[in-house]
Design brief:
eight-stranded parallel sheet; binds N-carbamoyl-L-aspartate; three-stranded antiparallel sheet; globular; 335 residues; TIM Barrel; binds zinc ion; single chain
Length: 335
């Protein structure tokens, strides 16, 4: 049987939530990933050293038997330098949300006034703390990411030494930015390598495919696939796995977020094999992230096997991407 081995898989954009949801979802990621960048959009968001420590402790308590490193982040505010110095050793990045643009982002940035942000961003640059960005404006939903490119340019040119990560990119415009600015990087989800807007609202409305940023056009999907499959050195896997209870998804006012954590590696194997690029998956799933973030995860070896696997209908009440569908790869063993 055909197998494929991945070493130290990393998920560079992950929502773990807190309390019961955390207990349900964190073990699923800790099982097959060596580490993950943990998003800070809790209610209330992670904004203090105490929040970071408490959140990390709760995560570690849910995964006692697996080796798993939660790389912690803070929710961006215009923090001062002294505060940043006090947290720098305990965080891996800071995540910036435009206010109100996605789930639990109400306390985000409401205007991109560079001079107001300069002291924080310059201090982050000096301290080598990467800035992760949810890059969407409040424009028309299909244009929000493309419109945000001017803000990425502003950030990239004003802070040329700051590592800026364009999170969960969905457009060809974002892909093109990678080669325009040395300090711009990106994460790509697995669902954005599979879906277009048609899979969300083209037929029956599919709430479990609905996320922010929304899946775009076929030409955007192709641009994302090309850059992921070649494992562009500035691109990393970040699932943006964003669990919501079934009742919040299958409802009027469906919450944004696709839950993919437990099946991401299997789906990535299927996609990379389909395009005969399995050899590039290691870079996309771990090596690029290790060099971009300068992190060294502990050893973990995941062996995947090419055999039919039916994605469960739900994981403790959370419906995953492609629930109930058969895919071509399964996890065989983990060491
Ligand atoms: C995320 C969530 O639910 O926290 N939702 C999503 O659609 N991706 C937030 C985010 O990353 O935008
Ligand atoms: Zn996210």
């Amino acid at each position: 049987m055909k197998t494929h081995t991945l070493l130290m898989p990393l998920d560079m954009h992950l929502h773990l939530r807190d309390s019961v949801m955390l207990e349900n979802v964190a073990p699923l990621t800790a099982y097959s990933f060596s580490g993950a960048i943990i998003m800070p959009n809790l209610v209330p968001p992670v904004t203090t050293l105490e929040d970071v420590r408490n959140y990390k402790k709760s995560i570690m308590e849910t995964v006692p038997n697996d080796y798993f490193e939660p790389y912690m982040t803070l929710f961006y505010k215009n923090y001062d330098k002294a505060f940043l110095e006090s947290v720098a050793n305990e965080i891996t990045a800071i995540k910036l949300y435009p206010a109100g643009i996605t789930t639990n982002s109400e306390g985000g940035v409401s205007s991109f006034d560079i001079e107001e942000m300069r002291p924080t961003l310059q201090a982050m640059s000096d301290m080598e703390i990467p800035l992760c960005v949810h890059g969407e404006t409040d424009g028309f939903v299909m244009d929000r990411e493309a419109e945000f490119m001017t803000i990425y340019e502003l950030l990239a040119t004003n802070f040329p030494k700051l590592k800026i990560i364009m999170e969960h990119i969905t457009t060809k415009e974002a892909v093109e930015m990678l080669d325009k600015h040395e300090n711009l990087y990106a994460t790509i989800t697995v669902h954005h390598l599979l879906l277009t807007l048609d899979d969300v609202v083209g037929g029956m409305m599919m709430p479990h495919n609905f996320c922010k940023p929304i899946a775009k056009r076929p030409e955007d999907l192709n641009a994302l696939l090309t850059t992921a499959l070649e494992a562009h050195p500035k691109v990393m896997f970040g699932s943006d796995s964003a669990p919501h209870p079934r009742s919040k998804k299958e409802s009027c006012g469906c919450a944004a977020g696709v839950f993919s954590a437990p099946i991401a590696l299997q789906l990535l194997c299927e996609i990379f094999e389909q395009y005969d690029k399995l050899d590039n998956l290691q870079s996309f799933i771990s090596d690029n992230a290790q060099s971009i973030y300068g992190i060294c995860p502990e050893f973990k070896e995941v062996v995947l096997e090419k055999r039919p696997f039916i994605i469960p209908e739900d994981y403790s009440g959370v419906v995953p991407l492609y629930a109930g569908n058969e895919i071509a790869w399964a996890i065989e063993s983990i060491e």
